[in-house]
## 1
Amino acid sequence: MNSLRLNIVLRFVVLVLMQVILFNRIDFLGYINPFVYIIFILSYPVNNNRVLFLISTFLLGLTIDIFSDSGGVHAAACVCIAYLRPVVLKFSFGTLYEHQTIKFSNMEFGSLFGYISILTFTHHLVLFSLEIFNMSQILLILQKTLFSGVFTMILSLLIILLFSPKSK
């Protein structure tokens, strides 16, 4: 197994464990729940096999669902943002995405922030819409999406910026 595959598998396992052991226990005011496991989707290599990526994101969401007893909402939200990711990458990074030369350590903060925020809020909107599944509760869905999304974005940006390899 080459080092890239080992890195991907290790990131998968570490993020699932962090989510299940640490971040699933955070429930501040009933609205703020960080879902940092989506860093796996955000940081997955751009030029890898798309079908393998979609399967991996489904397994990631399913694993979180199994540990959270949440009935598939995480799997659906993960596959949704994995499917939309190429469009968001092209929107956020433009020609860098077309040439597949994206490295978070070399990105300007505005592009990285836009990329992470679009996918995070999309993930959370799908997740909470499926979890609550009641249009009369749209304000609750939007409230949970906003508060959890902001908290997840802050934690994700910190983790990505702290642990991404520095450019030389």
## 2
Amino acid sequence: MTVQDITKILEELAPLPHAEGFDNVGLLVGDPNMPVKGVLVTLDTLENVVDEAIEKKHNLIVSFHPIIFSGLKKLTGRTYVERVVIKAIANNIAIYSMHTALDNSPMGVNAKICEVLGIQNPKILIPKTGSIRKLTTYAPLEDAEKVKSALFKAGAGEIGKYSNCSFSTEGVGSFKAGTSASPSVGEVGELHLEKEVQINVIYSFEKESHLLKALFAAHPYEEVAYEIVALENTNQDLGMGMVGELQTEMEEQAFLKQLKKTMNASVVRHSQLLGKKVKKVAVLGGSGAFAISAAKKAKADVFITSDLKYHQFYEAEGQLVIADIGHFETEQFTKDLLVDYLTKKIPNFAVSLSESITNPIKYL
């Protein structure tokens, strides 16, 4: 298998267009056509991780965090980022990053936290906006079902737990074929009226090129009329964070102690305890201060995240308990998620969980 073969499998789990605009995801170092000897999965790509890949004879590193976040103007080995890139290139090792594409995945970082903590029936905490589009096209009456079927097969018409969703209306289309045209119906130079069906379907924006290819292949017309509109609808199956419920409610202090143990956290920083039972829990791996208001709106009893500043704990405002367990600690099980996923997808391929320690924060 090539690097590209494996990254295509990873993008089924976390399509790169789902990443946030500020992020730097995808293949950061290496040739997409290079044959892969083995995959090493890590949270961060540091020099010790590249050394581990060399030792294990793995030439593709799949990393959650991107080692290259902003532009590199020089490669002199002056910084740890430059040294990692130089060593990877020198040893013909490719580096691929997923980061916020996996954060936004309904089966990604936050789903894994929910699984580890036993949070049931999790739903997206902050559904992603701007990711749904509507395609409108027009097909002859007798070809409408064929066109719709092709669009559905390409991934259009999926709304939550429902598929093959569309809306159609019948009408009359008109056109006059020019002298160089080869119309499938009508005559060159003559105005033609055709009974047509207007087909409307929605789709997730990363499927657009595949969808249009399917439309053009299935449509009988030489020139296909279509319109694409970006919708403001939120995507309930895509976005940051998750919220769900514990099987059994717990006392706040007991829950925080269990949280610390389960997540292997050295410390749990939290806001004022409220003396209430914990049943509904919101989570957001990594830096999640921006989701405090969403956790309150979801009526969570506890919100688990990391990287909170002093004044951000005040934002709990007596409505919930905010728990900061550390950045690495919230994302540590992401490696296991990716190894399990790749092992199931390519069971006879060498996929290894990195043993290198990459957490830069130490505690006394």
## 3
Amino acid sequence: MLKAGVIGAGHLGKIHLRLLQQSSKYDLIGFYDGNEEVASQIEKEFGYKRFHTSEELIKAVDMVDVVTPTVSHYEVAKKVLSAGKHLFIEKPVTSTFLEAEELISLAKTHKVKGQVGHVERFNPAFIAVKDKIEFPMFIETHRLAEFNPRGTDVPVVLDLMIHDIDVILSVVDSKVKSINASGVSVISDTPDIANARIEFENGCVANLTASRISLKNMRKSRFFQKDAYISVDFLEKKCEVVKMKDAPEEPDDFAMILQNAEGVKKQIYFDNPKVEEHNAILDELETFAYAIENNTSPVVTLEQGAEALRVANKVIESFGK
């Protein structure tokens, strides 16, 4: 079992602590949080061993799970990697792409692994259909959330939209060609609503919308490709695949047939892949343990986390242009 420690014991940090304690892949050694009151309360309430400095925690473990606010990711992660310890770090990986590049370099220098917490890659609904997403040419995503003061220290692009950016980059095998976006600040100092159009060199276009001041929560993505339409509801953990194939000469009475102006007939097929229930956060943590133990590449590498951040920052830079 890998000795694990958590730095940052806020809302998400407490979830990570509980899951690491449950996991058969890790031995949870303890945690560190710079807020004396929070750290004392968690130690008393849950019984996790508390470290009084991050350095002490890092020294005592094999892997550090960084769940601090984004602004401190770089400094904390640098300590972890420089000490030769494996790093799991929440998204976005850092505040800037240059900081992310330095972490990548440190991980290579010290021969340790890093994984970024882009948890939607492990969403059961996405897992169920990701192998069916082949050469998508148009993608539309909506990620809407009710207002929550937690997370408003960064633009909604880095808070919410970056989830969809990472998913899109994982299924589109092409470089980004251009980005056009707009963002509006409503209640925060940074944009609360954003829309982005990302064009890829292979012709694929992605239209992304994110809001953190909506009246209801929504996390849906739709992927359109030749002869197929795939929808993923990340919130409800549901998915659907609609395929079109050449219609048989004698379709049955209940077949759905479309005919174009040239007389070509297509039959529509509906497929609802089975969605296996599992905890996405636990899965991402345990796949990282597998990568460490078997010396394989993590599911979401530091490089991939850095690229998602680079694209997200390009979206922010294009506001108002």
## 4
Amino acid sequence: MARITLSNLAHSYLPHPKGPEDFALKQMDHVWEDGGAYALLGSSGCGKTTLLNIISGLLRPSQGRVLFGDRDVTDAPTAERNIAQVFQFPVVYDTMSVRDNLAFPLRNRRMDAAYIRARVEAIGRMIGMEAVLDRKARGLTADAKQKISLGRGMVREDVNAILFDEPLTVIDPHMKWELRTQLKTLHRELSHTMIYVTHDQTEALTFADKVVVMYDGRVVQMGTPQELFETPAHTFVGYFIGSPGMNLLDARIEGNVAHVEGCAVPLGAGYGPVGGRAQIGIRPEFARLTSAEGLPVRLRRVEDVGRHKIVRAEFFGREINIIAEEGAGIGPDMTRVAFRPDKINVYSDDWRVAPAGRLGEAA
């Protein structure tokens, strides 16, 4: 196991990059703690796989260093980094049995036969394939082959880190939930450093202790699921995390009040001057329909999703989403929306602005 340090790291696929726009990964400095479970989350093309390949040694960064513990591994090949990697599409030896596929990494390292047998059977149970361990991999379904690939990545107990690159793409939804649960159990038992790449927020939030959100080649926030939900550091995090995502409205900030289309919205904290493009962000969970206070809105539709209702409303051409409890009444006179002041975030040019002080506190 290892602490992973990314120091002044950046990468461009061009031989002579001229500016930030030429970099697939913008400059970053991060420390990922030994034994942590991390998820790299972002939309396609944001740099997740590039970063994972740099950590694994499949790609050398254009600048900066990668350290495992105190060892600089920037120029070390993958084989010397002592990692396991599971790819998006299964890599399986069709002519081997499931058992032999799982045992392959251990036999390569000349482990004891009894240990190999016990370890393979344990992993076989974990991935739900104990009944077919002696069957050839040829002819198995794509999701079965991916389970073999996952199992082979997890069979070693002595690795510095296990890297997963969108490993559940071909797995059916029920098995995805089961395997994520099993991965969490394995992490608690063995405390491997695990890095899990995905574009699926549910996978990221249920797997990871900390989620690393990437946007346009940058890490825009690293935090716990609660931190990403309550205090998104960037508007992309607010939009990408949550269903529906955060409501964002252009505003002018004056102290503890945001002015939005001529309406005053009280904030739960005071702010100094906010330059650039100022916006307020509020989660639909912290917005409520009213008949007497708040911003005037036009209701467009109500979606009943079982546990709650999603109210789609419009404010000066901008969509506002409100989450209402399942039993909440929505009357024709409820044409305003109010926000919980203490749950409003303020942004300048997409980055969160720290408040000068909570109301009632010294700034």
